[in-house]
Queue: 2 jobs
Job 1
Amino acid sequence: MATSKATAQWNGTLKEGNGVMKYSNFEGPFTYASRFEEGKGTNPEELVGAAHSGCFSMYLSAILSADNFPPTSVKTSALVHLGEDDGPKITSIDLNCEAEVPGLDADKFAQYAQTAKEKCPISRLFAGTEINLSAKLIG
Amino acid sequence: MATSKATAQWNGTLKEGNGVMKYSNFEGPFTYASRFEEGKGTNPEELVGAAHSGCFSMYLSAILSADNFPPTSVKTSALVHLGEDDGPKITSIDLNCEAEVPGLDADKFAQYAQTAKEKCPISRLFAGTEINLSAKLIG
């Protein structure tokens, strides 16, 4: 269907070194401090969270649109928790969604949101973690 | 250990709508065309590929450094294949790594690279796909 490309480079050791992640027209520098402390720069978990919230929002729009409930907007945030379990591990991701969908009731919306959580391709990719969803109709 | 945050918004239907993914100081617009066709913008798979290549490169540096083989550089590209299997699915990710590591032989390097492929936290997160690794010492 589609192939996407990205690259990264790390120079030097874990703690003194530095890296950059690149895709499209974006270059994101990262370091040990930007990943594990409060240092300036980005980290892989931020990209993973953005990909997940983006894919979930698009997929939810797709299944709502297919059933003639085109959403005005779907806003989703992702909190990506990096912990430890026999080495570093993404222990969970919290998705928090607020959507404006004319004509849809809350119970039906909750079912659509649950389906998007289970079926969107980034959720399917992230089989190695627990995904927690909170979804609310607004507007 | 660390929590990272990102957000996204999708407006309108799947095909006519548009979205944006945000984290750190980055805003990446995306559309149906930028995900499934050749349209301008980014998509979740590019972010996922950047996160994977970045995490793999950093983790490989970490385990090499811990054994007193600090790498000069670790460069990794990711090809993320979005296909179909009972709905849209990331069917595989190809990681291609070239690293400059003074004093290390090719066989030992291959073992470190294999370990990074299995143990880096983004690989562990991506349990829902097949990860193919090609890794080569250079320099």
Job 2
Amino acid sequence: MKFTLGQIAAILHAKLEGNPETEISDLSKIQEGHAGSLSFLANPKYLPYIYTTQASAVIVQEDFEPQEALQTALLRVKDPYAAFTFLLQKVAELQRRPKSGIEKHAFIADSAQVAASAYVGAFSYIAEGAVIGEGAQIHPQVYIGEGAHIGAGSVIFPHSTIYHQTVVGANCIIHAGACIGSDGFGFAPQADGSFQKIPQLGRVVLEDEVEIGANSCIDRATLGDTLVKKGVKLDNLVQIAHNVEIGSNSVIAAQSGIAGSTTLEENCMLGGQVGVVGHLTLAKGSKIDAQSGVNKSIKEPGQAFRGSPIQLFRDQLRSEMVFRKLADMYQQMDRLEKRLEELESPSI
Amino acid sequence: MKFTLGQIAAILHAKLEGNPETEISDLSKIQEGHAGSLSFLANPKYLPYIYTTQASAVIVQEDFEPQEALQTALLRVKDPYAAFTFLLQKVAELQRRPKSGIEKHAFIADSAQVAASAYVGAFSYIAEGAVIGEGAQIHPQVYIGEGAHIGAGSVIFPHSTIYHQTVVGANCIIHAGACIGSDGFGFAPQADGSFQKIPQLGRVVLEDEVEIGANSCIDRATLGDTLVKKGVKLDNLVQIAHNVEIGSNSVIAAQSGIAGSTTLEENCMLGGQVGVVGHLTLAKGSKIDAQSGVNKSIKEPGQAFRGSPIQLFRDQLRSEMVFRKLADMYQQMDRLEKRLEELESPSI
Amino acid sequence: MKFTLGQIAAILHAKLEGNPETEISDLSKIQEGHAGSLSFLANPKYLPYIYTTQASAVIVQEDFEPQEALQTALLRVKDPYAAFTFLLQKVAELQRRPKSGIEKHAFIADSAQVAASAYVGAFSYIAEGAVIGEGAQIHPQVYIGEGAHIGAGSVIFPHSTIYHQTVVGANCIIHAGACIGSDGFGFAPQADGSFQKIPQLGRVVLEDEVEIGANSCIDRATLGDTLVKKGVKLDNLVQIAHNVEIGSNSVIAAQSGIAGSTTLEENCMLGGQVGVVGHLTLAKGSKIDAQSGVNKSIKEPGQAFRGSPIQLFRDQLRSEMVFRKLADMYQQMDRLEKRLEELESPSI
């Protein structure tokens, strides 16, 4: 990209202090600014950098008052972070060049349907009965199983495995190596100590605008559907077991796992490395801190939890604070007991 | 599938209450029953659904006594869950259509041997000296390294990597993206702070009827074998380090990890996100609760543990219960000390 | 391989006690020794095996004094473990047969550059503008995105995804299924509860001699670089978020995760299943025990931590020790209170 500051000011409806002819060819963090880059200042923590940054211009709050001399141009807006994110999106759009057509060396089964505007990369395998929607981008080396549906505009990165019958909605993003529709982990214990596999005959359904991180796994239901609702975002290496339901606009950070048949209502947020036991329900807007272990259903919406097993966030912090003093407390108790003994035994 | 209730009753040796001509085309959970579906009632928690289910028939205990009017037919058997699982397996068998032959675009090295009844999918790579047994199903986009052996009837899903020399027994299932035989994590610290790789020259051996979940990893041994014995079931995203040995019929839930040279004896069960330190032995039948950290060997068989680090299950629960009251306990101790001080100081 | 003991003694500058014509064809652990194998004794724990091992020879400390009769030859050296590791490396070198050339069925885009001495396996995809250095080994079924650079001598195992613009240094090893350069997990919350994706325009840069475990994930930076410095070793299933920086010669065990914008200085060591919160700095040489949760920056170098949240290693051990006695402590406090009450109430 290459724009003048004047053009960018117009796009952002920003008040420019600087030369409108200055050319901007890059976006950068303020501490990594360089000639030709545009940055932003939103977090006060980064304030000192504005006096030293090499960025050609910085987006700031409309009422920003510098305390020292500046070497950079300013673009004053109401919300610098939102303005910068908007520019990021514009740049991403310019960089995005959706492909169409079927690359040499792709395998398309006879009964599969690939929309004319979709792209299927080399070494991808589209099995019998699979359907690829308009504009979908199936990168190279992807597997789309029998009867799977990929919605319009969805992007599937390399080495993802979309098992048979899986449904992916519109405008989803599935990162590399994700497995959608692998068998649920169900086995019936036998008298001789061995385990018999319980066939997993259900599906996985992802609604629209779902994003799945790299190498994450979502198991198909035993019967019925494992369901990931609209707008859900999963980070990398997340595990979603069979028959789980994840409410719309829920966000789950990396390496968390949800055991079978649990339901998250909408707008839940899980930190990284969280575990949730099976057959629970988490009320909408539940917030679970990183590394927590959820072992009971949450009924009241919008509460924050922490710990393994979880307590209310504040209660857990209080317990943790005392945990750090436990050894002292143990000795204090011993001293108290000794003092008590002295009082109990008559001194003469 | 399409069967009449009469046919199904005969298969299950069930007592039918309803029209033997009713057609069944689907299995469902009782709460998701619909016309043409057959469901089951095993867990009393789901009892209310039997009076409202839309399922055409429900498998129930032979002595089930309805308390209200039923709209569904009944199939009475001794063990409804076992009967339903049996039907699931029958349906799965009907759906399973093992393929044979080598698909166009597969790569088979000159010295590799592929049994005539095996299937190798497109874009799969069978390296020099590899052996694929009778009836094995190598799905598309699988990698089978040099000299690896895949036993008869085993199924390998897309994007799995079976490194060189790995041995996979008969009737194993390896889900998508699993890595079997990657290098163990061994490095010798050098004087300058860097690390020198210790070559990993051993193998991974999976015995028969092992199932490995999606994106799980099993590292090859430094020397000798990393060994996964008969009937072991691993869930998704599990990590098994070099020189580990997992006893037969052990079951490990998602995102658990076993560090190097540890041995699990037979019939161990690990919940999700468990970690086990290296060079330990866990006695047969050990049960480890989710998110636990095992930092010592377990000698007595058949015991249950929990916590990080682990305690006996009951002891850990008792500690956790008090942990929740720690802040109160801390204040109580302070109050006790003040009362003690008052007693100690003469009132006059 | 096949060497005589005399040859091996010469290579190791070892003092041989045994027949120099004995042929050695294998390396083994001492407890798994067999005719023709060479083993070593470094850890005193394994001392008893030297009297029973079937190995044809064992490398021992130069001053080793057997207490019983030996059936095996001895090779006396200063550091048996180092000598054995040296032999492992020699064997690994002999086994390593780097390939060169482009295998049939590989996809090389028109503007990609592949060095003449590099190898690209079947079904690998080298996108536009990608550069593959001298001697690099791109195994089958690898994806190298647009403009990515793979340094000389690096080895990329099957099913790895190297996203666009990623830089991999020289002599790196990337195990199967690793994803380098997937999008950072960044979303801006919207008024309606949904999340808007923040485009991830940065890169991932791996310096030289980095090793990445199977199915590990490293996210690209939002802007700038996610940076993994020289000599870093990551185990399997590790998650590195966007804009993280990992100092040289740091080592991270399996299933650990580092959240966004955190910096590890050089020579840090993280155990398995560790979590580190975002925007922190860990001083050089920090050691974090398995399953710990790091929720604050570490300023003093070279210290060991443990727990979730972390304490200094020793402090955490002390707290854990009391945690195991918490239930007893709770009852003790109750008893103290009762005794105090008795003292407080005048006996007459």
